[in-house]
Amino acid sequence: MKTKKALVISTGGTIEMSQGPAGFDMPSQPSEGPVEPGGLPSWLEVEHRRLFSLPSPSMTPSRMAGLCRLLADEERSGRWDGMVVTHGTDTLEESAFLADISLEGSCPVVFTAAMRSPSELGVDGPRNLRGALLTSVSDGFHNFGTVVVLNDEIHSAARVTKTYTSNVSAFASPGYGPLGFVDDDRVIFARAPLGRVHLPPGTLTLDERVGLVRTAAGLGAREVRCCVAGGDRAVVVEAFGRGNVPPDVADAIEEAVASGVTVAVTSRCFMGRVLGVYGYPGGGADLERRGAFLAGDLPGHKVRLFLMACLGAGLDGAASAALLGSPA
Ligand code: ASP
After folding, report:
1. Strands 293-294 and 234-239, how do they pair?
2. Which atom from ligand 1 is nearest to the alpha carbon of 92?
3. Centre of ligand 1 from the C-alpha of residue 117, in Å
4. Neighbours of 185 (CB within 10 A)
């Protein structure tokens, strides 16, 4: 069998944590290398690079962009058959999504993590890393974008989300399901991700002035105005259901749009698209009339990163909406 080469980039997370006096934390010696994957085939050569040693709540958008630029450089180098990123589970889906929308796709990129630290019973990190490595160099991987492998499942970065605070089966793609599975030493892709969002080619730069407001009954107008007053150039509103908000939130959105701020509407629901089917004050159709755009089926935290990248690339709200397939 021909030798294959994979790069593992470590960023931190429970996969590398140990129990300290105050609870789980990153080891004090960050160069302690990645977790050892269990039982790799002899034809697979793995090189390790450490980028960060952070719990993933400390992964800021700018750190995520740094990680994506490193992946882009390594992708261009042509040295690797596959690349794996180890990451904390809390914000993994955001880093993986940014990689998915920004990388060329000439080299498979797989994110993985662990729900249990190496010191716990039933540790999942070594198995997840092995599955991620095998997936990254699999002959069956064809232009699927960035994927996430945990618990023997392969998920599209655009669709995956952490659904459980503690269980090893924490990652799922609600409404879509996994792309495939790692079955012992076999990697089985069952479907391809269609309709992926992608940024125009170019170096990834983020303009972080994008707010995110989650609505609740009677809540959201003050928060949207606060984003605008704080200088945000775009605001993502996680609305109810099909993309509807309380009437006073609609007024705040209209004011935001009038002041030149892009407003994208997503849903608190974790399955389905937003669509302008309700015309009452605050309904999705009303928000479109007031100048907001409805952002398809992506969750708010991913649309926020998407808009940061669009603003960073010099795209306005209409061009960003068009890239999402949601004309403003
Ligand atoms: N809180 C941890 C982190 O995201 C959880 C994990 O890695 O699973 O860094």
Report:
1. unpaired
2. 4
3. 9
4. 11
Within 10 Å of residue 122's Cβ, how many Cβ atoms?
7
Ligand 1 pocket, mutate which of 17, 54, 63, 124 (most atoms under 8 A from CB): 17
The ligand 1 atom at the shortest distance from the C-alpha of residue 90 is 4
Pick the CATH number of 4-189 from 3.40.630.10, 3.40.50.410, 3.40.50.720, 3.40.50.1170: 3.40.50.1170
The CATH number of 210-323 is which of 1.20.1250.20, 3.40.190.10, 3.40.50.40, 3.90.226.10? 3.40.50.40
Q: Which positions are catalytic? A: 14
Report CA(319)–ligand 1 centroid distance (Å).
35
DSSP line for 246-264: -HHHHHHHHHHHHTT-EEE
Binding site membership of 118 for ligand 1 (Cβ less than 6 Å):
no
pLDDT in 10s for each residue of the chain, 328 residues: 899 999 999 999 999 999 988 999 998 876 556 677 778 999 999 999 999 999 999 999 999 999 999 999 999 999 999 999 999 999 999 999 999 999 999 999 999 999 999 999 999 999 999 999 999 999 999 999 999 999 999 999 999 999 999 999 999 999 999 999 999 999 999 999 999 999 999 999 999 999 999 999 999 999 999 999 999 999 999 999 999 999 999 999 999 999 999 999 999 999 999 999 999 999 999 999 999 999 999 999 999 999 999 999 999 999 999 999 876 6
